[in-house]
Amino acid sequence: MASSDAPIDIGHVALVVRDLDKVATYYRDVIGLEPLSADGEVRRLGVGSQTVLELRQDKAARLRDPRAAGLFHTAFLLPSRQALADWLGHIARIRAPIQGASDHLVSEAIYLADPEGNGIEVYFDRPRKAWQHSAEGMVMSTERLDLNTLLEEAKADWRGVPADSVVGHVHLQVGNIAEAEAFYTGVLGMKRTSHYPGGSFYASGDYHHHLATNVWNSRGAKPLAGGETGLAEVVLRATRSERDAIASRAGNGGATLTLADPWNIPLTITTKDEDHAG
Fold this sequence. Notes:
The protein is an alpha+beta fold. About 20% of the residues lie in helices and about 40% in strands. It is built from 5 helices and 18 strands. The chain has helices at about 20-30, 80-95, 145-150, 175-185, 240-250; strands at about 10-15, 35-40, 40-45, 50-55, 70-80, 100-105, 105-115, 120-125, 135, 135-140, 145, 165-175, 190-195, 200-205, 210-215, 230-240, 255-260, 265-270. Strands 11-6-7-8-5-12-15-14-13 form a 9-stranded mixed beta sheet. The protein is globular and about 50 Å long. It starts with 7 loop residues before the first strand and ends in a 7-residue tail after the last strand.
């Protein structure tokens, strides 16, 4: 099962930005997403015809406090280690700065940030048979990733993210882990798959995680008031039965199912057979 084959997966992420041109150019030229459409002060970028990122310009937005609730990173999942190596070769050639690189046992990941400070992870998953489990759940760690070895495998013909790339997961900053777990496992119905000090990971199906929450920079953060840059919403895709179950637990019978977690982070749930983003 790929991350996108789970009963609930990530459709796309929407961000509020001040400089639409600059941020859109970054996701095109550095990350490798394809510009798909523009509508006034909104631009959509994606893979093939599928939107994975929506940018909404608000020049008057307050710059988000990095200690506030909101986005920790959007994680773009590439289909193979070769694709990750090729992308690493691409960003090395254009001298795009990175913030870190980690071996998480289930995956290998490289971290960076867009021009307005929105966190990004680009990663690939190790084969499912290599994932390990314990009584506490999925075994994940944060080990050093040897970038030089990975770079040696890079080919020079990078032409953007491959067709099978998706948003594999979204990692959020919250104010309290217990409250986050109650919402994401209770209302949203996901399974807690792993837990670090100060961070929990949640999945649908048997994936390692589609969503994560941490308090590493944001312990005690208050609910978002609106009007700031950063995360505007996470759009999830669910099977019809999963969407109906979430709506029932949330007490929301409307045609549009948009929830807010305890920090006012918006989550919109679409049905997989009705999602035609892009």
